[in-house]
Design brief:
This protein has 2 domains: about 70-275, Vaccinia Virus protein VP39 (Rossmann fold, 3-Layer(aba) Sandwich); about 285-405, NAD(P)-binding Rossmann-like Domain (Rossmann fold), CATH 3.40.50. The longest helix has 21 residues, at about 285-305. It starts with 12 loop residues before the first strand and ends with a strand. It has helices at about 60, 75-90, 110-115, 130-135, 150-160, 175-185, 200-205, 220-230, 265-275, 285-305, 320-325, 360-365, 380-385, 385-390, and strands spanning about 15-20, 35-45, 50-55, 100-105, 120-125, 140, 160-165, 185-200, 220, 235-240, 250-255, 310-315, 335-340, 355, 370, 395, 405. It is built from 14 helices and 17 strands. Helices cover about 35% and strands about 20% of the residues. By secondary structure, the chain is an alpha/beta fold. α5 packs parallel to α6 (about 175-185).
């Protein structure tokens, strides 16, 4: 029986997706037989209300020297991180010679804006290949996981931190108590922890269940996070919704009583109460909508196939692994998946083994339909693919509902 990673109470899953491969585990044909699978299940704690995976994959299987996600490939994400850096520099960096540390700094897309301003910084990134990209940019990067031991080493060599930041990474950290002990130890008395992650309220509202996969151990709400931070003498002092990753929330956290709590925090807490996010039953209706979405999408793809239409996937994303495997969508329904990441091209999607092809192939012979697997970048993608649409091609969306897009 699983136990909550935050409060230790027994937790039962509200949904079981069955056997699932590593979401970012794009592989070659000769690796099919040894592909790793695990049971993907998610539950909501009845005590602290933290929504989380109830079975976990060893982080070393997820973040390593062949990690397939590079933040800098998306122009919209590049702009977002530039704005994020500007906000931190304008509103939270004070005093002489401040220090910024980023947990899960990837290829340095956020920290580069601090480096360019001559601001002291350190990135903590466990995946060696993306960490090396940041190092080659001149960004001070340490290749390891963040925990209380890493925090102690940082404190010893660099001193206390003014701002500790994270972008779509805190939800990845299963040993949250070690992380929080590290945060508590590392931050200055008046320092800030600022992070953003996919928001549970958006996942429920949009039925964006493909956010549920191995890397995302937690699905945060303000209510659940407030319980966690209270155990370490800290509190959320500001919140700000973000459009990235299909709906995220940025949280600003400080030591209790040091900073003024913004009205937005109280407003979001009241909103969560009205939505039922402070209840153990928060995700009860989500399960039925997930099944309905998968059934509708598979039925649509089968109908298009029977009509002789060509359908390809657009974006070999981690989140698409949950969708494709749970809905049983394979190469019989999707010809291939187009992706711009060189390291994924020529490989196959996890579990369903759909070929991953270059974007050039997509342009050379447009299909009739493109399943928008990278739906969180939909606006950017559709703006870039006007020629595909001019020639009669159409996108298929499935968040918040299955439909053919105009």
């Amino acid at each position: 029986m699983a136990h909550c990673l935050i409060c230790g109470m027994q937790i039962d899953p509200f949904i079981t997706f069955g056997k699932m491969p590593i979401a970012n585990g794009f592989l070659s044909a000769d690796e099919f037989e040894k592909e790793f699978f695990y049971e993907l299940k998610a539950g909501c704690c009845s005590w602290c209300h933290m929504v989380q995976l109830t079975d976990h994959v060893d982080p070393s299987r997820l973040f390593h020297e062949n990690y397939a996600y590079f933040s800098s490939i998306s122009s919209s994400m590049a702009k977002h991180f530039e704005w994020f850096a500007d906000t931190v520099q304008r509103d939270y960096l004070r005093g002489r010679d401040p220090l910024v540390v980023e947990i899960g700094s990837n290829d340095g897309i956020l920290l580069q804006h601090f480096m360019q301003k001559g601001i002291r910084h350190v990135g903590i990134e466990p995946s060696a290949n993306v960490a090396q990209v940041a190092i080659e940019k001149g960004i001070h990067t340490v290749c390891r996981f963040f925990d209380e031991i890493t925090a102690g080493n940082l404190l010893k060599h660099h001193g206390p931190v003014d701002v500790l930041i994270g972008a779509n990474v805190f939800c990845h950290l299963p040993d949250m108590h070690s992380v929080m002990r590290g945060v508590q130890r590392l931050l200055k008395k008046d320092g800030y922890l600022i992070f953003e992650d996919p928001y549970l309220g958006d996942i429920i509202k949009k039925t964006s269940f493909d956010q549920i996969y191995d890397e995302h151990v937690f699905y945060f709400s303000l209510s659940a996070l407030s319980f966690l931070f209270s155990q370490y003498g800290m509190e959320v002092i500001d919140v700000a919704p973000q459009e990235v990753h299909g709906g995220s929330m940025r949280y600003v956290v400080g030591r209790k009583g040091i900073h003024t709590i913004k009205p937005e925090v109280y407003a979001l807490m009241a909103q969560e109460e009205s939505m039922g996010l402070t209840l153990a039953s928060a995700c009860d209706g989500l399960r039925e909508r997930i099944y309905e979405c998968c059934e509708q999408l598979r039925r649509l793809l089968q109908e298009l196939r029977q009509q002789g239409k060509r359908v390809v996937g657009y974006g070999a994303t981690s989140k698409s692994t949950t969708l494709l495997n749970f809905a049983d969508i394979g190469p019989d329904l999707i010809e291939y998946i187009s992706d711009t990441t060189p390291g994924k091209q020529g490989k196959y999607s996890p579990g369903m083994h759909i070929p991953i092809e270059s974007h050039q192939r997509f342009k050379e012979s447009y299909p009739d339909y493109a399943l928008l697997l990278a739906w969180n970048h939909g606006t950017e993608i559709m703006a870039n693919e006007q020629e595909f649409q001019r020639q009669g091609g159409k996108f298929i969306g499935y968040v918040p509902e299955v439909k053919i897009l105009g």
